[in-house]
Write a structure and sequence with these properties.
By secondary structure, the protein is of the alpha+beta class. It is built from 5 helices and 8 strands.
């Protein structure tokens, strides 16, 4: 998604933390209040480093929003996210919401919201202003599987050390975070090789991670 100048003065600072991971994996983002939930989903995917290969949802208090254009949506207790904007979903007083990605692995992002008193209208939004650590690999098995994955790749004597590195593509840096790369992608769009056509979402899956922590 390409960043652009805001058409309204209301801008939120979002502090995003991935739950149940220590040390924390986090991002700080500036977004227009008028951003739609689908565009916010795209932003979170890019900023975190996910690949948009699974279902997701947003929860504001007791109200949840999801992807109405996927099979089985009618069975979920959710509203259609497509025309909902962030400011309206938050309402007058809400200052926190939940974004969940991949209902199998269960990656829950707790997001704190702070309205900016004086946003700089010369800046391009959305904008990432900080962050720490890389998101886990897709399909690693949730927080428990990720802990086992890290233990395996850090220990050359681990029985699955080589197979885990192969599964991860040869190397994985859990401390990796590139602010400049994220903002380039926000402004100009992600590299062509990183784009996944929307039609492929829910149909793509990484090869199964070996070991007991993996849950398909």
């Amino acid at each position: 998604m390409a960043a652009r100048r805001p058409t309204a003065s209301q801008v939120y600072e979002l502090y995003v933390v991935l739950e149940n991971i220590e040390p924390p994996i986090w991002r700080r983002l500036l977004v227009p209040a008028a951003i739609t939930l689908p565009k916010l989903h795209d932003l979170l995917q890019l900023a975190m480093g996910w690949t948009d290969s699974h279902l997701h949802s947003f929860t504001f208090g007791e109200e949840s929003y999801g992807m109405a254009d996927v099979d089985g949506f009618a069975e979920l207790d959710m509203r259609d996210e497509r025309r909902q904007i962030l400011g309206a979903a938050l309402g007058e007083s809400a200052r926190e919401f939940l974004y969940e990605y991949d209902f199998g692995d269960g990656w829950r992002h707790r997001i704190a919201v702070t309205p900016l008193a004086r946003p700089n209208l010369d800046w391009r939004y959305p904008l990432c202003t900080g962050g720490g650590r890389a998101a886990p690999p897709e399909d690693v098995g949730g927080p428990g599987g990720y802990a086992e994955f890290l233990a395996g790749i850090r220990d050359p004597g681990h029985t699955e050390h080589e197979s885990l590195l192969i599964w991860a593509g040869g190397a994985f840096d859990p401390e990796g975070f590139d602010l400049n790369a994220i903002n380039r992608a926000l402004r100009f769009g992600p590299p062509a090789a990183a784009r996944i056509p929307r039609a492929r979402v829910l149909r793509t899956k990484s090869p199964a991670r070996p070991g007991p922590g993996y849950r398909g």
